[in-house]
Amino acid sequence: MKLSALEELRTARGLDRSMAPAMRELSARSGPVAQFGFGPLKVTFLFGPEANEFLFSNARKFRWRGGFESLVPLAGETALLVSDGPGHDRRRGLVQPAFTREPVAGYLDVLLGELDATLDSWRPGQQVDLYSTFRAMVRASTVRGFFGPALAAEHAALGADLEDALHLLNFSPPRQQLLQAVPNPVRRRARDAIARIDRRVRAEIARRRSAADPGGDVLGVLLAHGEGAMTDTELRDMVVSLIVASYDTTSAALSWAVYALWSDGAALGKAAEQVAERLGGRPPVLGVLRELPYLDWVTSETLRLYPPAMAGARTAAEDFAFAGHRVRAGDMVVYSQYVTHRLPRIWTDPDTFWPERWDRSRPGYRHPSSYEYLPFGVGARRCIGSNLARAEVAAVLARLLQRTELTLLSRDVEPTGFTAMYPKGGMTVRVDGVRTPLPTP
């Protein structure tokens, strides 16, 4: 469906104000295809599982780089998210060992250590914005766990620069294109921040290249492949893009998980009961998360209702047709996990938080296809850290249930953002109590 001029203006304003609900409204009004804009600002939205399957099954028709052009100044030319073809596949293969079970367990331990330190600082009666708290906590643990103590010592300054750079990227694609096209303070702050990030990361790469032992973290794994495996630029892009992808989306997912669970007294009670019965005071490390199936359902349901990556963008590499609509080479194409995850034809009561929908023993259970439920993408482009992200959500929820009594103060929170769908205005809780962790047996 081609929108009228009035509808285009309304849609563009809606995308900038709150992209997730605006896309859902656009889908309800236009069906599986909606097109608006012209020239370099033309956007084609493809909605629903059939569109997702078309996109992921016809990779040669699309370029990832074009769809995420605005990420290139921060993530880098060779980052996994923005690269295509053999170069992407080679770099993904080199970093894949850093996301197997044993390293993931180590990263999760670092996160739980940061969480416990954060909880130790809380006091009864205190009001906490969990979204900003989780961002700082996840960023610190990501930098430390992935790239070691030297870079972790600079995580606060690094984080401030990342925030300036990411601010530009959380506008809608049309607004991003305008901000990138003309000089403005937002673009200037982002450019200066990226320059400082580059200096810090490249200095650490040089230091680690000259060290006798490259270490066992992600950077160490990449350096262990040998000097010819990855250039300094490839290493820089991998470091920065993994930090951004890890903390930007994970902190949003954690905030939405608390919002969803603490908004539902019955679900909160079931989760707390299972954690108390099966874990007691044991920390929720990777090896024991399998004992908490209800929190696994909570995690799946949170990622359905609030997928941090709520949309994905591509550039059409060639002309194609879908659902009776022609798309020209060079046009931007956007699909939406958020829209797909809330389609009534796929999901019963799609706006209801219902963890039990993921109970495979439930009568009438139907497992969604990978094109109906895709919080981390599909196939070869699936998020490389998806297993870690799921474990982080479940583990943080379990630790909060073990150690805290919280009252959710934020209500009717709106989603916003583009690179990651985060809660507008933050996620505020009141701390009613904090318990000291039991000694690890």
Automatic annotation (TrEMBL):
Classification via Pfam families: p450 (PF00067)
Cofactor(s) the record lists: heme
PROSITE patterns per UniProt: CYTOCHROME_P450
Transport keyword on record: no
Signal sequence coordinates: none
InterPro entries assigned to the protein according to its UniProt record, in alphabetical order: Cyt_P450, Cyt_P450_CS, Cyt_P450_E_grp-IV, Cyt_P450_sf, Cytochrome_P450_monoxygenase
Keywords annotated in UniProt: Heme, Iron, Metal-binding, Monooxygenase, Oxidoreductase
SUPFAM superfamilies membership: Cytochrome P450
Family stated for the protein in its record: Belongs to the cytochrome P450 family.
Protein name stated in the entry: Cytochrome P450
